[in-house]
Structures
1.
Amino acid sequence: MSEQPRLVVLYGSQTYTAQEIAERIWRITKVLGFRGPVQAMDDYPISRLIKEEFAIFVCATSGQGDEPDNMKRFWKFLLRKNLPANSLVRLKFGVLGLGDSSYLKFNFAGKKLHKRLLQLGATPLLDIGLCDYQHDMGHDAVTAPWLKQYLAILKQYYPHIE
Ligand code: FMN
């Protein structure tokens, strides 16, 4: 059997919601035959990111449009001025943002992450998903169709997955 394809699921989460959604997504990708960790962005060895091909980022916004504490180091690294613009050319990614539209800076952390990944040469497999705590169905309203779309696009690269 050929080696299982790798897909990393990374989260930034202040009060565990993004972590829980990331873990749920990771279980689904694992059943589909992908390997790779589910980790807080700050627990992930960031030097590996240049080698990754597929990633999902689940990113909450906390404070006043701020990054959650467990992605602050990762984020600071990504902002380094000396990173070449093509650092992440291998990476194909999706960002799922978790926020609340009652805040002025709705989903700012996820939006900033998406934009910075683009600047570093990574390719978005789909547009950022903007989950809104104010929605009647909560974050599921966006998470479910967003993940469905991500997996449909992933299947174009790995037609054998179910
Ligand atoms: N959502 C936003 O879109 N913008 C914000 O500035 C923002 N600030 C928040 C500040 C606090 C103290 C809290 C409790 C929530 C805030 N939110 C904001 C909403 C969170 O992003 C949302 O509740 C999310 O689901 C939290 O995910 P987490 O549990 O993984 O941290």
2.
Amino acid sequence: EGLNALARKAGLLYFGTAIDNPSLNNTKYLSIAYNTSEFGQVTPANGQKWMYIEPSRNVFNYAMGDAIIKPAIQNHQMRRCHNLLWHSQLPDWLTSKNYTKSELIGILENHIKHEANYYKNECYAWDVVNEAFNDDGTYRNDLWLWTIGPEYLELAFKFAKKYVGRGTKLYYNDYNVERVNNKSMAIASMVKSFQAKDIPIDGLGFQAHFTTGKAPSYDEVKASMKQFTDLGLEVAITELDVRTTLPDSDEKQAQQAKDYAATVKACKDTEDCVGVTVWDFWDPLSWVPDVFSGQGVPCLWSANYTKKPAYYAVAEVL
Ligand code: XIL
């Protein structure tokens, strides 16, 4: 039995994976990605990001998003849609000009209106806002903050609510929040202030991009999740991977397996944790080597398509 089959028996809604557009011509890869015993949920790794969806102002192109979302629908895999607002992977027209506050609010609403409406009823959840906080708990100083001010966060969730399908869950998604720390506490405060003002928010996404040997423990992940489930939110592990300093070794693979298992078990044992998504499952297609020099092999399947110790450790705790 695969990971999704095990996850569902364990009471989770899904075990899923990110899929990136260049993967779509690899038939061996796809035979695993579309095997619903392994993966019951799909997230587009890039296809729904602003630079691809709205490459010119008010010109929308859903080709890359559809290439990932449509086969998942056909295959009866749930979809986490990613994302409506982020500081990164924005189109040049948006970053190379100074808009006024009211122009930028209009641009934000127009983007969310088109994209959320286009994917209406196709997303279990939307990552409405991605990575808006610094590790010290302050707001990230990006164009949204410096042009609109912190209320851009509330506006994004209000706009999303207006245009998504009924029942689509609205998530805030971030990294380095898998422990109780300044960042996760600041986000919990934001959720409380949203709730006091009736700003809609349903879920908290824990990206969980970890490093072998430095990942949070089972107890740490559980404690951080509790900050949000105590507020009535659901939580999910949305981008799990555990990168290793190269060269890889049996010892490192054994540690990586423990790191994966601790987080998956924390989700399984948290009543309102709905599922786990890995940020791709095959080492050669991971984003890690491009971004973290000297690091790699963060996935559950190795280059030759064998399942790594981490795969079996995850299966074991599900
Ligand atoms: C990454 C993609 O995997 C890469 O292909 C792309 O070049 C950069 O973005 N946090 C997120 C994801 O929320 O959108 C990022 O995805 C990884 C970190």
